[in-house]
């Protein structure tokens, strides 16, 4: 049985004071989610991780939006997995389309980070998804399969089982144009079959999230799809009232 997961991706939003305000407001809604068997989390910027971790309900996952695969050294501007661990962080989002586009993050680079995270008992949330051009050409599945194969290359089934996948069509991110439940379900079902080819039966228990303009008003529809195990939410995760609406929408 795969537990539903709601993860808020705050991107480059919120000062530490604003993040603290959210964290303090989130206590009851996290309990409400957990009581309904839903795992919830937020991914603040690096500078807000400690503030959020120290002020939010301990049942809430606090994730980073990136990490570096090296232990330490001359990597200006980077943050290591050991540093995140020292801040009590054990989840990291990788391969988000914005990082792929603006920071040149490749599936190969994600693969190295995923391996380093798994070696440190951390949970990688690996994002994949196609551009509008690829979608219009009907090449979504080919594109996403390549991202999955490369990003998870060399993992054992036991390791793969610990990875959370997020399918986010780029044309649906921040645009208000969410993918229909049918499109999301079709691609996510395909991702699960691809994972099964690569890793066997553990794929049945791997969580695959949908992301892209998920709102309190449409989250319920996605959750009704058999293969969709939760949501990675940007804009609608920033405000505690909206976040609560997402949780309520996920409650069956
Ligand atoms: P959005 O972003 O919910 O604002 O579309 C989703 C994401 O990029 O993770």
Describe, in plain words, how this protein is organized in 3D.
Helix 6 (107-119) packs across helix 8. This protein has one domain: Aldolase class I (TIM Barrel, Alpha-Beta Barrel), CATH 3.20.20. The relative contact order is 0.15. The model has no long low-confidence stretch (mean pLDDT 97). The longest helix has 19 residues, at 181-199. Helix content is 43%, strand content 15%. Strand 7 (208-211), helix 11 and strand 8 (230-233) form a beta-alpha-beta unit. It has twelve helices and eight strands. It is globular, with a radius of gyration of 17 Å. By secondary structure, the chain is of the alpha/beta class. An eight-stranded parallel barrel has the order 1-2-3-4-5-6-7-8, surrounded by six helices. The chain has helices at 16-25, 27-35, 49-55, 81-86, 97-103, 107-119, 132-136, 140-151, 157-160, 181-199, 219-223, 240-250; strands spanning 4-9, 38-43, 61-64, 91-94, 123-128, 164-167, 208-211, 230-233. Bound molecules: 2-phosphoglycolic acid (PGA). The site of 2-phosphoglycolic acid (PGA) has 13 residues, from strand 8.
């Amino acid at each position: 049985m795969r537990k539903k997961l709601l993860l808020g991706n705050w991107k480059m939003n919120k000062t530490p004071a604003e993040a603290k305000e959210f964290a303090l407001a989130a206590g009851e809604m996290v309990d409400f989610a957990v009581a309904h068997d839903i795992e919830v989390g937020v991914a603040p910027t690096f500078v807000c991780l400690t503030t959020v971790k120290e002020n939010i309900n301990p049942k809430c996952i606090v994730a980073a939006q990136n990490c570096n695969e090296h232990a330490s050294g001359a990597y200006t501007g980077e943050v290591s997995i050991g540093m995140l661990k020292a801040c009590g962080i054990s989840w990291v989002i990788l391969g988000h389309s914005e990082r792929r586009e603006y920071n040149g993050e490749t599936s190969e680079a994600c693969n190295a980070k995923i391996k380093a995270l798994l070696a440190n008992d951390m949970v990688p949330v690996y994002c994949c998804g196609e551009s509008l051009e690829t979608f219009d050409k009907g090449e979504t599945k080919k594109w996403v399969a390549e991202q999955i194969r490369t990003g998870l290359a060399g993992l054992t089934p036991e390791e793969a089982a610990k990875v959370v996948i997020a399918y986010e069509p780029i044309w649906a991110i921040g645009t208000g144009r969410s993918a229909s439940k049918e499109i999301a379900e079709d691609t996510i079902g395909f991702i699960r079959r691809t994972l099964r080819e690569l890793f066997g039966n553990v794929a049945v228990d791997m969580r695959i999230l949908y992301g892209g303009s998920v709102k309190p008003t449409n989250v319920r529809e996605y959750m009704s799809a058999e293969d969709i195990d939760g949501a990675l939410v940007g804009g609608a995760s920033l405000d505690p009232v909206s976040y609560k609406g997402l949780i309520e929408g996920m409650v069956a």
